[in-house]
Amino acid sequence: MNIKFETLINALSRRFKKDIISADYQTMPLQGGTVGNVQLVTGIAETADGDKLPYRIVLKIQKKWERYGDPGSWRREYDLYASDLEATFSDTFRWPTCYHAEINAEETEFELWLEYIDGVTGLDLTGDMYEQAALELGRYQGKLYAEQPDVLQSLNNLSHADLMKNTYLHYRSWPVVYDYIRSEDCEFPQHVRQMLIDIDEHADEILARIEKLPLVLCHRDFWVTNLIYADGKIAIIDWDTSGWGYLGEDLASLIADEADVDHMVEYYQRCVPAYYKGFSEYADVSPIADDCVYEMILLVFGYRLVEWYLHTEDDDEKTKHVHTLQKIYEMKNSPAQG
């Protein structure tokens, strides 16, 4: 791919805090979001003093697209990096530093030049790393909730608090998944089917309970592929779905999205108390200790797992999706340990 030389030099000058006068580069695709073009750019940069510095930097190019129920999400990461949100992060919980951001004149495409963080991610994360991610997330959201920094009022492109609810209701109104779990053809164990039917029957009261929880700034795609553990610290990438959500909402993704199925129940038991512990360092959570994370997991991932099951021909994938639903069922009888 072709890279604008001036932009590369500008990004590298900020990266090294030195006057970079030339650089070569190679690009390699990184596993990025489903709609973004994410490249690892590597090479040697040369300073005005003649020093030669090897570098790795991430280039993310995002074209305009429409996400259901959240039309501004395609450019949200650009808007957040252009804001003062970075000042709210800590040394132990942050996003990658942005060295250069630009959006085209038509506002149909942007690019971000980002810090490359080499660490553990995805299903290589250990239980201790999951627990630390939950603790740091709780601290971050608790601090923002307690302090309400001015930057929160200035963020005008965030997803809305009812996104989780609307996504669930959208799935529930879809006959393909709704009718399947109630049909004689359904191949799920009866107790798994009943778990999904029960959540539908009690959805109004569950959603009413969730809506009494504190509203916090949520990442909303807080799953293992977007977490990087490096040097004892947590970095979070892909902020395009972030917005106002409810206490504990991000934990649903951490525990259940493309999960480490064999350890799901253990991670649920460890992460929920770690998250509340972090939040309670800044704000009181005792009145709302009635744990809604289990219900959030079902609201967000119950029908989604049914959809994935129905839309794959791969038997191993089908088995994995049923196994995931079984583990969610087991969570209800294995409450998180505080």
TrEMBL record:
Lineage, top ranks: Bacteria, Bacillati, Bacillota, Bacilli, Bacillales
Species in which this protein is naturally found: Paenibacillus azoreducens
Name used for this protein in its record: Aminoglycoside phosphotransferase domain-containing protein
Pfam families: APH
Aminoglycoside phosphotransferase domain boundaries: 112-269
InterPro entries per UniProt: Aminoglycoside_PTrfase (IPR002575), Kinase-like_dom_sf (IPR011009), Oxido-Kinase-like_Enzymes (IPR052961)
